[in-house]
Amino acid sequence: MSKNKSDYLINRKDNQYEVVIGLEVHAQVTSESKLFSTSATKFGAEPNTQVSLVDAAFPGMLPVINEFCVKQAIKTGIGLNAKINKRSVFDRKNYFYADLPQGYQISQFKDPIVGEGKVILDMPEGQKEVGIERLHLEQDAGKSIHDLDPQNTFVDLNRSGVALMEIVSKPDLRSPDEVSAYIKKLRSIMRYLGTCDGNMQEGSLRADVNVSVRLKDSKDLGTRCEIKNVNSIKFMQMAIEYEANRQVDLIEEGKSIDQETRLFDTKKNETRSMRSKEDAHDYRYFPDPDLLPLEVSDEFINELKTKIPELPDEKKKRFIDEFKLSPYEATILVSDIDTAKYFEDVVTKMGKNKDIKLAVNWITGELFALLNNKNLEISKSPISAKNLAILINLIKNGTISGKIAKTVFELMIDGDKDPQKIVEEKGLKQQSDPKALEALIDKIINDNREKAIEYKQGKEKLFGFFVGQAMKVSGGKANPQLINEILKKKL
Amino acid sequence: MSEITKQSLSELVKNIKDKKLSSEEVTQAFINRSEKSKELNAYITEDYSSALEKAKKFDQRPNFDLKLPGIPMAVKDLFCTKDIRTTAGSKILDNFVPTYESTVTQNIWDSGAILLGKLNCDEFAMGSSNETSFFGNVQNPIDKNLVPGGSSGGSASAVAGQLTPITIGTDTGGSIRQPASFTGTVGLKPTYGSCSRYGIVAFASSLDQAGPMAQNVKDCALLQEVISTYDPKDSTSIDFKRNEYSKELTNNIKGKKIGIPKEYRVEGMPKEIEELWQKGIQYAKDCGAEIIDISLPHTSYALPTYYIVAPAEASSNLARYDGVKYGFRAKGENLIDMYEKTRSEGFGAEVQRRIMIGTYVLSSGYYDAYYLKAQKVRKLIKDDFDEAYKKVDAILTPSTPSSAFKIGEKKDDPVSMYLNDIFTVPVNLAGLPGISIPAGHDVKGYPLGLQIIGKAFDEQNILNIAYAMEEKINFKNKITDWWIK
Questions:
Q1: Could you count the other beta carbons within 10 Å of the beta carbon of residue B407?
Q2: What fold does the segment set A434-490 form as a domain?
Q3: What domains can you pick out in chain B, each with its CATH number?
Q4: Measured between alpha carbons, how far is A437 from A419 in angstroms, rounded to an integer?
Q5: Can you give the pTM of this predicted structure?
Q6: Can you tell me the ipTM of this complex?
Q7: Are B319 and A104 a contacting pair at CB < 8 A?
Q8: What residues does A129 pair with on adjacent strands?
Q9: Interface membership of B203 toward A (CB under 8 Å)
Q10: Residues B10-38: pLDDT tens digits?
Q11: What's the DSSP call for residue B140?
């Protein structure tokens, strides 16, 4: 592990400031039903169609813990190399709001289900370890909709009671880039585990960002501000950038920083005060008397451990060992579970005589460019792993050149066509018959006698001209290696 | 055959099974008497016509294998009943009609019983005299202008006044046993986790427990047998082996060890309560029980502990009544204004007092000193009982420190009102079963009760002791029907 070196510093006159960031990530648990009720959790359903009597807090209704959500939280804890607490307690966080039907949120305050853990970030300057403080389970609130009616606020309780995991990091992050890498890593791990889909647009992953600044080399933490509910990595980075500079400016002006909760205005690109420490809610946490402490046995945890798939860090190590990938290549391929799956699929489909290097280049090159262009996830790739593997094999065994392959690739996009068929139908097969190529080259030399003589007299640059002519005449299909060999011989 | 409404549950069941009475006749009889008893104000909501329909239906296709075949009964208005208004005695739920049924009442209807209506109670079960109900106070059938106790005051009044053969109440700090004691009836608070809390309007979740109220111990045992089931919909429901309490009921308690806790001899306790207790000890001895002096050293802390734990939970449990989703809503300028007006107008004074106490003891800076300490003391109180139960099988105490008092007498003195629960509260804090049986009268002729406290899940034992003592005591309730013109 390299030294924890970060060059993200804020400079003012003679002072250099370091930024200290901690994240509270709210990750929606992937689960068919809610944390304490059997209502569905599908995204985008008609308002108030996924609400049970428990979710709407009718009199006498009681919460019953969803065992699947507990398993998901424990699996995530295992994925974060964290301590699983065999006894955890659900508490009530009391506050009034129209979209909080119970008047309290069931959460875990003193005794969370998962304790300390860590994640490893792959930064350009090397690896960095970020500490996890805890992970706890809690209910989501409903949604207040203020802009549908001038007089009234509408409430949609579909989200009310949906299970969230709040993952709290230690204040170990030092730059917007590290925050980005951290979120992506968490998302990656949870997607591998199938415990959170990580979809930020649908609100499955949100974060509260705690930011403070301090003089470089200082050991003390500065006063922090919490930026609430930021729902994209880009906005998190912008918010941190703005907030850190704001705090530095205050210090430089000799003013003090108030501990407060702030909101990020994405339109104005600034944070502004939401409430000060004095106005902070007193949530009156206390253990929920409707729920017994949650106790899990060693067997229960061990059983879940056997169900943990290969996670990104292990997969990366294996890719490097098994496929001789560079750490950089491996990092790119494992970062998203679907990419890793696609890559491994291609590798398998290529069969015995496979060219891994070529596969990596084609996936990270042509395929990524295509997906990017079309704004598609790799799981929705218009070209299947199977057909890409065939294409790569066609290059590898000399049937087509790399250049022709690019043409074939373009033709494959519409309808995920079989590259073999495209090559046959369009007659794109590489000309590798030495006799035919010799005849072709003889003709070119004949047609360009003067240039041939110049070459023989020492104008070696002209070699490229003859290669170009051969490719042109063959319609790009001539095997470039053979052309080289024959030309050298003939000239 | 005696008058229908004077018959015990066991007699009614027998007469219906023997086809000497139809469900319709029985139902009609209780409706008639209820109609004549409006002055008691025992009912909040009546459901007579559909009760009669159900009774007729039962008579057409009777099922005599059921435990409560065609038996009409009214229930405390804290139990949610499908399509029948459920108010919890509060203005804030005045217009609330549940779409669901509580597990306890569902068990009752599944056993063949028929709902007569919903019975008055203190608002959200917060009170010891039924005077906090939005629907007015309830009269005790024993005497005019006498409180029936609370919070299950309507239930106690309805059983004592023979408006229903049996009923169910809920008991958070004595709300079944104290009104039973005040009305000369029998009331059982089961072990915490015995009866499901699903569908019962919550007061204090870690203390609330539903239980039967009846004219005698046997009826009480039968109803307990019906209502006590394990329910996965309540996470605090306990899956233990439940007896057939009425079948296994016996008056043979020879050799049972009964503890007498010295700490229940509280300062200022009326002489007649002390005398009643001594009489009770003698009855127990006469039944063959062995009397053993015991100590429950933390008893004096029970009441203050209760008045921290219960309001704390209540302050959170009642947060859902905010005018947003159901129930009463006052108009407001904005959300906060709407909350404040809804809750100020919707909740009565006692409920507001307890919400404020509860909010205070949970507040940051006070939590450790109050709530956390109370939880620790609660553990000590439970430990006291555990220690005592190494030596005895059950504990005998008075049910209340006095007989029923006059309406209005303690209304403005909450502390004196809270003191009413001094003997019942420790039982809830420890999660134990307790039963109150009528054992005598005071000088005014008002009934007095004795409480038998059992080990957890040992309802059968205290029912047996109560059954044996009931026989010896041979209590006769003095009901003059003063309210019937």
A1: 19
A2: Arc Repressor Mutant, subunit A (1.10.10)
A3: 8-256 (3.90.1300.10)
A4: 24
A5: 0.92
A6: 0.97
A7: yes
A8: A120
A9: no
A10: 999 999 999 999 999 999 999 999 999 99
A11: B
